[in-house]
Amino acid sequence: MIEDKTPEDESSSEELFEHYKFTADPGQEVLRIDKFLLDRLPNTSRNKIQVAAKNGNILVNNAKVKQNYKIKPLDEVSIVLPYPVRELELIPEDIPIEIAYEDDDLIVVNKEANMVVHPGYGNYTGTLVNAMIHHFDNLPSRSQDYFGRPGLVHRLDKHTTGLLVVAKTEHALTNLAKQFFDRTTERRYWALVWGDVKEDGTVTGHVGRSLKNRKVMTVFPEGDNGKHAVTHYKVLKRYGYVTLVECKLETGRTHQIRVHMKYIGHTLFNDLEYGGDSILKGTTNSKYKRFIENCFNLLSGQALHAKTLGFQHPVKKEQIQLSSELPDGFQAVIDKWEKYTGVE
Fold first, then answer.
1. Which of 34, 105, 157, 271 is catalytic?
2. Whole-model pTM?
């Protein structure tokens, strides 16, 4: 009997994994767990299930089990898996990428603005995944577990810049998916937001597709819709009409920082989808308007940068902690605000 199957919705989550839960029937015959799951999971091989077990991604009655565990009646089983490969043909493209870290198991890239992470409707080429495939194909050596495609467990919006980890092997992909699911990774973003943020704080509110406009997300404070989301933020520098903040993600929903900050009255600067590309704070004189327009012209979209990324290496088991500089456009906007306000 399937008690609950709750795959993370790829269209509404930054975290690219899925979570399944099953309860064995009262009359369940004794059966190896890999065979039990193979009969119940779509598009999944026994090898994927065994790799998941080795990484501690399979729980029975809330305890980790190996792939040879024998299922018993009424056992409660849960498993975390990376998303299956898309049916879309993935074409290698020689697109420059900035590499922050790379070894045989994974690669961390510093994504530039105006780049979509993976192919999809309206974006079949020119994506980070197309660039990664070309990069993988031209590596001088590959690990034995190399599986020929980029393994994504999280993503960044088109106009969001910064650090993104990509797995090279099935083992790394499954291990990283579990880390993101367990929320043991560390992700900190820098954002320039409209308004004077008075103090540090936390935003808690379910995030889901807007019922009025399915192209954007919204906060459902009562939790009747959307998925649980938590964003912690602290002030880095105030410029009066805008504030530079650092956001730490506890969960990873689509547009989470953008929607949460808008919800508390601090829309991201130049956020095209959420109204941040209009003057929301400040004066009405023409000089100020020209100043803001000049700032907007330096950005392709929202002023949001994935500044730091931390996780445990899937093989070496050491902590990987990386940081990246603000992209030129974002930094130029900060410089302009410092000059305009005299705040350094």
1. 157
2. 0.79
